[in-house]
Amino acid sequence: SSHVKAFVDMCNYLQEPCHVARFQKICGVIGSFPVRAKTLDGGESEPDGSGWRRRAQHREQCSDANVHGMQSDDCARPEGASAAAGAESDTVRAKPLRKNSLTEEVGQEFLINNRFFFYLFTFGTELGNEMFFIVFFPFLFWNVDALVSRRLIIVWAWNLFLGQSTKDMVRWSRPASPPVVKVEVFYNSEYSMPSTHAMTGTAIPFCLFMLTYGRWQYAFLFGLSVALGWSVLVCVSRVYMGMHSVLEVITGFLYTLLILAFLCPLLDTIDTFYMTHSSAPLAIVASHVSLGLVAFSLDSWSTSRGDTAQALGTGAGAALATHVNYQLGLLLDPPPSSLPLSLHSVSIHAVVLSMLRFFLGVAVLLVTRMVMKAVTIPFLCRVFGLPADNVRQARQHMRVELPYRYMVYSVVGFSCVCVVPLLFRIVNLA
């Protein structure tokens, strides 16, 4: 029992938001939380809504706070910022990245005293966002290795479903602000345990490493270092953004390793079933839709439910396209006799061809997504008798959000794996 108590105490310690705030301060993020000014009778006045002290009232405290881009009548120095002012040329005033899609929260302003960390961790957190996956998976499928790409999509969809569903069952709130600075607020309405950014940021690189080592020629330490560096960057970025505690990030990392240990040995069986079995289309649709229904029934609307349905829809579309490709003899997998594959024969012609495929294919996917979004939401609103003048409100209904996400992203996934490669053959880019 003493070991259990020590473990619980350690978890409680790692969950404390003060560690997140301390790490943010070390990395040069200073919050602009409202400051309560003392009144003459010793009480406290109401906080300034902007959170910034006035230079006229606190000139003696703000004489060394020449913050880049500030107005002359603003201090631009939040409470506790004097020790981390940094160089004048390297300090900027910023707003959180993207407003919250549910509450339309825009967050409070903050100071960035270290631009390198800001750009580094912004890039790291983007490795777990939608736009990265809509670029990464197609590029890998069209230009590098179709087999690896479609199996990665399987892992991504299942991993995200398990992570988001666990969030909605555990229901832990985001780290408290203050003391944590919300550098990002887009996912602030979601629950936070475990970190699904940490999960996808671990699942993709480590699964990529496991699928390609031995299939492609590269050193073991090189592949392991890339996977570990990728994962650490994404995990640490979530603490920097103020979206997760240290415990939630560690849990997401370990949870994903457990999922990979179970799922990766089954990938060959799953992929073969998708390609060859006559009942595969029915099984794909039934399994992905039923998982979406489970996820949507766990809690009220949030961005996590949409992300889950999006991943499951993409996985269903890609799996159906895999079946169609196999049945039509269009699979792009290299024969076993050509393994292991090598990157040493890359030429300028091959690079140009890859770029042409990439930009043309992504353009097709983006147009497909745009058209499907424009068509499906009004259609579903009419079917279910809901007003279509407010898209954000309409999408909070499960009857709209679930089929909308599935219809849009299953078509996108199908287009990525089947339609776009056919287009490449027509225009001689295959």
Automatic annotation (TrEMBL):
<keyword id="KW-0812">Transmembrane</keyword>
<feature type="transmembrane region" description="Helical">
    <location>
        <begin position="116"/>
        <end position="142"/>
    </location>
</feature>
<keyword id="KW-0472">Membrane</keyword>
<dbReference type="GO" id="GO:0005789">
    <property type="term" value="C:endoplasmic reticulum membrane"/>
</dbReference>
<feature type="domain" description="Phosphatidic acid phosphatase type 2/haloperoxidase">
    <location>
        <begin position="152"/>
        <end position="264"/>
    </location>
</feature>
<feature type="transmembrane region" description="Helical">
    <location>
        <begin position="346"/>
        <end position="367"/>
    </location>
</feature>
<feature type="transmembrane region" description="Helical">
    <location>
        <begin position="279"/>
        <end position="298"/>
    </location>
</feature>
<feature type="compositionally biased region" description="Low complexity">
    <location>
        <begin position="79"/>
        <end position="89"/>
    </location>
</feature>
<dbReference type="GO" id="GO:0042392">
    <property type="term" value="F:sphingosine-1-phosphate phosphatase activity"/>
</dbReference>
<feature type="transmembrane region" description="Helical">
    <location>
        <begin position="218"/>
        <end position="240"/>
    </location>
</feature>
<protein>
    <submittedName>
        <fullName>Sphingosine-1-phosphate phosphatase 1</fullName>
    </submittedName>
</protein>
<dbReference type="InterPro" id="IPR000326">
    <property type="entry name" value="PAP2/HPO"/>
</dbReference>
<dbReference type="InterPro" id="IPR036938">
    <property type="entry name" value="PAP2/HPO_sf"/>
</dbReference>
<feature type="region of interest" description="Disordered">
    <location>
        <begin position="65"/>
        <end position="89"/>
    </location>
</feature>
<feature type="transmembrane region" description="Helical">
    <location>
        <begin position="246"/>
        <end position="267"/>
    </location>
</feature>
<keyword id="KW-1133">Transmembrane helix</keyword>
<dbReference type="Pfam" id="PF01569">
    <property type="entry name" value="PAP2"/>
</dbReference>
<dbReference type="GO" id="GO:0006670">
    <property type="term" value="P:sphingosine metabolic process"/>
</dbReference>
<feature type="transmembrane region" description="Helical">
    <location>
        <begin position="406"/>
        <end position="427"/>
    </location>
</feature>
